[in-house]
């Protein structure tokens, strides 16, 4: 994401949180010469927050700016009291296991809640849902050269924030490097929402076909893949998805179906998996598929498309129009047309909500999170 986009994004976040300016400003007026009176961008104005960082720096003054995480151990990487907002997270990892992106689990708690608002394998959180590093850049998540992981989702909290990383693998992480940038403020608006991220996997999905091999109609989203389900008030920001194909042919054609404030039927229904991720025509097909990545959508990993063992990583964000809900949200997608495919799905969903914690399905054991082909 360019500096201009990031300034615009954080300018909007800061304005929404009441942090961007010392005092309210009137709507811009046009001057006689045609130059707008409110021409100064937000970063030229006086700010009323304090910029801080918690990192893995060597407290002795040396150059060992990292933390080891032995197998089976938990490491606290962030702990802050008082109101504020995490604005950026950067990690890079040196680990013995080539599967560490699926074995390490990132958790976040807001305002002392008993349950985490984020509990996701670290690779899935950063859009690397199949455990491989893939370079890409979006408005909120990115993987840069040198296998560095970046997150730009704003994460406000009223009282406190805490983050941990747990090594659920059997081999040590030798070096976990961390930089977490945040703002400290006197107070936040009472209607500030909390960031959430939820992991789901189904390995494999069940193919919904009748005795004659026909695909049944699916107007109510029965047996869809569920990205997230929650109760409260907030808005959906988007998803990342990894798919491992267990059969030949195109893995998509599954409609996105979003249930909003009504558990009986979806309010929003799309036209197909590749359409939801803002691609088209099977992303180019068996012999012409091409990886792509943009600010709000992309498919940065496409390997062996439309073949057994084919792998896809996709993302879609709703920054242009976050899907609002007042009491209930369930975001789902068919796995194939009418749920007729039995592929393996690994997903992470991101949203904001008025409660600092919500019900999160228990994570599968680390060994069961590893992507694999499960042919019929």
Topology:
Blueprint: H1 3-17, E1 50-55, E2 67-69, E3 74-81, E4 84-95, H2 100-103, E5 104-110, E6 118-121, H3 122-125, E7 136-137, E8 141-144, E9 148-151, E10 155-157, E11 160-167, E12 173-184, E13 194-202, E14 225-231, E15 234-244, E16 256-260, E17 268-269, H4 273-276, E18 292-293, E19 297-303, E20 311-317, E21 323-325, E22 328-333, E23 344-353
Parallel strand pairs: 6-13
Antiparallel strand pairs: 1-12, 2-12, 3-11, 4-9, 4-10, 4-12, 5-6, 5-11, 7-8, 8-9, 13-23, 14-22, 15-20, 15-21, 15-23, 16-17, 16-22, 18-19, 19-20
Q: Using the CA coordinates, give the radius of gyration.
A: 22 Å
CATH level 1 name of the largest domain: Mainly Beta
Number of domains: 2
Task: Give the helices and strands as they follow along the chain.
Answer: HEEEEHEEHEEEEEEEEEEEHEEEEEE
Just name the CATH architecture of the largest domain.
Sandwich
What's the pLDDT, averaged over the residues?
92
Q: What does the main sheet amount to?
A: 11 strands, mixed
Question: What is the fourth-level CATH superfamily of the largest domain?
Answer: Protein of unknown function DUF2961
According to CATH, the fold-level topology of the largest domain is Jelly Rolls
The helix count comes to 4
Low-confidence stretches: 20-32
Oligomer: single chain
Shape verdict: globular
Separation of the first and last Cα atoms: 41 Å
Structural class: mainly beta
The overall strand count is 23
Percent of residues in helices comes to under 10%
Binned strand content: 35-45%
């Amino acid at each position: 994401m360019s500096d201009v986009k990031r300034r615009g994004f954080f300018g909007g976040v800061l304005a929404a949180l009441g942090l961007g300016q010392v005092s309210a400003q009137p709507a811009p007026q046009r001057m006689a010469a045609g130059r707008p009176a409110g021409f100064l961008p937000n970063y030229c104005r006086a700010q009323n927050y304090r910029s801080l960082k918690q990192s893995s720096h060597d407290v002795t003054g040396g150059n060992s700016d990292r933390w080891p995480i032995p197998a089976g151990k938990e490491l606290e990487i962030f702990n802050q009291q008082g109101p504020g907002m995490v604005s950026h997270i950067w990690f890079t990892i040196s680990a013995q296991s080539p599967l560490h992106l699926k074995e390490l689990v990132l958790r976040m708690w807001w305002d002392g809640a008993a349950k985490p608002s984020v509990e996701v394998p670290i690779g899935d959180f950063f859009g690397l849902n199949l455990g491989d590093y893939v370079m890409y850049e979006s408005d909120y998540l990115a993987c840069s050269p040198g296998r560095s992981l970046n997150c730009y989702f704003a994460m406000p909290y009223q009282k406190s924030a805490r983050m941990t990383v747990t090594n659920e693998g059997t081999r040590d992480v030798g070096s976990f490097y961390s930089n977490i940038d945040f703002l400290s403020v006197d107070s936040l608006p009472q209607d500030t929402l909390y960031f959430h991220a939820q992991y789901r996997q189904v390995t494999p999905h069940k193919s919904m076909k009748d005795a004659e091999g026909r695909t049944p109609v699916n107007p109510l989203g029965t047996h869809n893949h569920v990205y997230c389900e929650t109760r409260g008030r907030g808005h959906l920001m988007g998803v990342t998805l990894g798919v491992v194909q267990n059969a030949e042919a195109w893995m998509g054609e599954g409609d996105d179906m979003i249930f909003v404030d009504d558990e009986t039927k979806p309010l929003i229904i799309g036209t197909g998996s590749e359409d939801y991720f803002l691609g088209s025509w099977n992303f180019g097909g068996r012999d012409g598929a091409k990886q792509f990545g943009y600010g709000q959508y992309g498919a940065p990993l496409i390997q062996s498309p439309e073949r057994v063992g084919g792998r896809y990583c996709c993302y879609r964000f709703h920054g242009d129009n976050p899907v609002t809900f007042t009491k209930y949200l369930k975001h789902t997608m068919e796995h194939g047309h009418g749920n007729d495919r039995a592929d393996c799905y690994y997903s992470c969903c991101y949203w904001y909500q008025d409660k600092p914690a919500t019900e999160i399905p228990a994570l599968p054991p680390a060994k069961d999170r590893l992507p694999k082909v499960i042919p019929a």
